[in-house]
Design goal:
121 residues; mainly beta; M1 Pyruvate Kinase, Domain 3; eight-stranded mixed β-barrel; 9% helix; globular; protein-N(PI)-phosphohistidine-sugar phosphotransferase activity; PTS_IIA_glucitol/sorbitol_sf
Length: 121
């Protein structure tokens, strides 16, 4: 297994789960503006070590999800701001630039302190 990115959830905004019905989580670095932090899983910003590709995997807490598509700005936004959207809809074609698309499956609500990892198997 090659780890491309890893971090931890440092805080869960009070309105994060407002988007659960849409199968979306928004990540943002600890430095998120106050007006958006309530809607985000706040993370520590870390360096990306490699390229994030379709077919890689995301570990969110104890649950693993296959990446189905990678927006063109995901790597840059994740490394600079810690800010991307996780969309669990299985989209395989190009979508929004800052969105990481994941398999359309049941997904679980992460807890504060949970690990987030992107890796190749």
């Amino acid at each position: 297994m090659q780890t491309i990115y890893e971090t931890k959830i440092t805080k869960i905004g009070k309105s994060v789960y407002d988007f659960v019905e849409d199968k979306i989580f928004v990540l943002f670095g600890d430095n998120a503006p106050a007006d958006v932090a309530d809607y985000c899983l706040l993370i520590t910003i870390n360096e990306i070590k490699g390229e994030i590709n379709k077919g890689d995997f995301l570990l969110l807490g104890n649950h693993q999800y296959k990446i189905t598509s990678v927006g063109s700005k995901v790597a840059k936004n994740l490394e600079q701001l810690g800010h991307i959207t996780l969309q669990f809809d299985g989209r395989e074609s190009d979508g929004l630039p800052g969105t990481l698309y994941l398999e359309n499956t049941d997904f679980h609500k992460p807890e504060e302190g949970a690990e987030i990892k992107i890796f190749k198997q």
